């Protein structure tokens, strides 16, 4: 270890290099480390001068690892993962609890997971569940978490995946809103609806449902636009209008009757929702248990919603992706 200290300008250089190499961007690494981008650049330049080799290629605003950089990053990543595993083991021995970190959307956490937290704690009293919450589209690296929810086609070079279900959409609203709409609508079946939409969405999900899409195009006065899908569903729960519900997120409220289908029509988008973990970090038994529980709960949800609304044909939509 004395030799290692001599080969590095400082121990902090390892953390800066690892973040920059993983993010492939000095600005993102700086944000993660709560320092400025120039500070990251200076530390890495100092590290390269100290080692006498170039670790990054910096060209046309893009940062990539050199061959020497890749060798160093591979070994540092392995070392950091081993240290993290040791710290988790010590924490579990000391507290009797094992930490499992999930990378999920705020909507999934708010509307699917929170209603089940008491159940989860009773089933897994030894697990301390932590969250990396994503307010917008779920994306980003998964190396720093145990399990992530992502839309992917399946396994790839960096990830192992377990399919939760295909993405299925359904227009939803509160029972009170639906009753009021029936009383007041005297012309077109959906005329006068307030449609709740994502402000940051690049896709108009209502376009998949013609009766609602026509209204979106012709009557922008009846749009309620909010920045987070968790708020979209909350607005629907409060009777503010019709939202497009992702079935795997809204299923709890459908089962309780707090949300109801605004139309008995569900459709599959082609995207697949998976639970994902990094190939660089073998999944621990506690994390695997949480993964299995989410899958089991989702299957139970779909069966319950299907019993309530068989006309939606949810099992048939999901079965197309079986295997």
From TrEMBL:
This is LysR family transcriptional regulator. InterPro entries: LysR-type_TF_proteobact-type, LysR_HTH_N, LysR_subst-bd, WH-like_DNA-bd_sf, WH_DNA-bd_sf. The keyword DNA-binding applies. One of its GO terms (biological process) is DNA-templated transcription. GO terms for molecular function: DNA-binding transcription factor activity; sequence-specific DNA binding. Residues 9-66 form the HTH lysR-type domain. It comes from the Bacteria. Pfam families: HTH_1, LysR_substrate. The keyword Transcription applies. Keywords: DNA-binding, Transcription, Transcription regulation. It comes from Paralcaligenes ureilyticus. Coiled coil: none annotated. Belongs to the LysR transcriptional regulatory family.
């Amino acid at each position: 270890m004395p030799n290692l200290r001599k080969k590095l300008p400082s121990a902090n250089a390892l953390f800066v290099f690892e973040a920059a190499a993983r993010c492939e961007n000095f600005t993102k690494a700086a944000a993660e480390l709560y320092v400025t981008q120039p500070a990251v650049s200076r530390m890495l330049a100092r590290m390269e001068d100290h080692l006498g080799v170039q670790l990054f290629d910096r060209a046309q605003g893009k940062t990539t690892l050199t061959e020497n950089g890749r060798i160093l990053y591979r070994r540092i990543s392995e070392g950091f993962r081993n240290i993290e595993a040791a710290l988790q083991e010590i924490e579990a021995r000391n507290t009797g609890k094992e930490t499992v970190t999930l990378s999920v959307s705020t909507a999934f956490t708010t509307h699917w997971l929170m209603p089940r937290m008491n159940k989860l704690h009773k089933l897994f009293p030894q697990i301390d569940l932590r969250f990396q919450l994503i307010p917008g589209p779920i994306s980003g690296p998964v190396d720093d978490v145990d399990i992530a929810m992502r839309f992917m086609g399946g396994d790839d070079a960096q990830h192992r995946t377990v399919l939760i279900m295909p993405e299925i959409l359904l227009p939803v609203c509160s029972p009170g809103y639906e009753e009021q709409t029936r009383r007041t609508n005297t012309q077109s079946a959906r005329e006068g609806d307030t449609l709740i939409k994502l402000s940051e969405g690049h896709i108009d999900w209502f376009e998949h449902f013609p009766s609602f899409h026509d209204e979106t195009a012709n009557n922008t006065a009846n749009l309620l636009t909010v920045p987070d899908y968790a708020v979209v569903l909350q607005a629907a729960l409060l009777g503010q209008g019709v939202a497009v519900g992702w079935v795997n997120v809204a299923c709890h409220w459908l089962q309780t009757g707090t949300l109801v289908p605004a139309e008995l029509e569900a459709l599959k988008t082609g995207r697949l929702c998976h639970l994902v973990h990094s190939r660089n970090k073998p999944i621990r038994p506690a994390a695997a248990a949480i993964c299995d529980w989410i899958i089991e709960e989702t299957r139970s949800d779909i069966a319950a919603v299907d019993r309530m609304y068989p006309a939606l044909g949810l099992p048939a939509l999901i079965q197309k992706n079986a295997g």
